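A further point concerns the way the authors explain their paired sequence and structure data. For illustration, here is how one protein appears when written out as sequence plus structure tokens:
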Amino acid sequence: MRNKNLFYKLFALLMVASMLLAACGEPAEATEEVKATVAPVAADPTAALVTAAKAEGNLTVIALARSWCNYGEAIDAFKGKYGIAVNELLPDGSSGEEIDAIKANKDNKGPQAPDVIDVGYSFGPQLISEKLVMPYKVATWESIPAASKDANGNWYADYYGVLAFEVNKDVVKNVPQDWADLLKPEYKGQVALAGDPRVSSQAQLSVIAAALANGGSLDNVQAGLDFFKKLNDAGNFVPVIAKQATVAKGETPVIMRWNYSALADKASLAGNPNIEVVMPKSGTIAGVYIQAISAYAPHPNAAKLWMEYLYSDEGQLVFVKSGCVPARSADMYARNVIPADLAANLPAADLKVAFPTLDQITAAVKVIGDQWMTVVGADVK
């Protein structure tokens, strides 16, 4: 279980390296004066933080659909644990809209100003360069792999998912098994993305995945744009931001979706209609999402407490329940705190998944944003 896939192995190696570096830099014996100034890492948030957060009384989150990575349970558990009201803005919003909401509400302390955001990995550099977030390191900071966090605590990964096809089987009789299948005439007017590729991380990773399946690479996503051009020219692509409702109604019966969201749709619809979740045979890619606190958060202490909850074992297991792989999975596997029945929700161990680096995603996103309309010509709304 500890070597469930390559990403876990990478996490573990990074963790070992971090511990070795820490050990090499530690003096053999600390003086009493130094010992007195070094506080132990707390397993839970401090009483002072809890008190300050409760005094604020509110937390505003944004773009957290309750079915997305089991955030509904996380929100309800946080409210029940601390008695803090949670204002849920724009549940189906994109990463770009989350960032726009911070910018638009810099001087606004009202209910439209988000305290925390959950955005795609590629947005990390922008959050820092535009000074949109405040640094904060949770108590479990050391168990988050170095490659998955900003060293200064401006943002850190919370989970990742694997891109899948979500298919309405009541409409689509022959369920597509790979990217090439989507070009077949039988899927005319049936294929859609779960976001606008110019602003949505999920849609951007879909284009990158299509590139991998069509002769491209993580460093060359042109093949992905060319694929969607073919899809659009064939009349198979529907330029609509797909969601559970559009899938259920048959408006977008085949969509690219994170495995955890597709599985949540399947469970929620409960056979009406029947949903099949397919991991494509080629072009399988992981999408890492990151968490951060707005630099203009109206409720900064509640925001910090929310972060503490999400990165606790309890919070990370909430993600696991939905099929999301939590950022602290290596540490949790090593301590045997992920129950076997929950681990069964995670992607299969033998699934070959591509994990693009931040630099690769940043470069790909720029190409997709610059060329989507000129190459594909489909204004996704």
User: Anything to note?
Assistant: The longest helix spans residues 6-24.
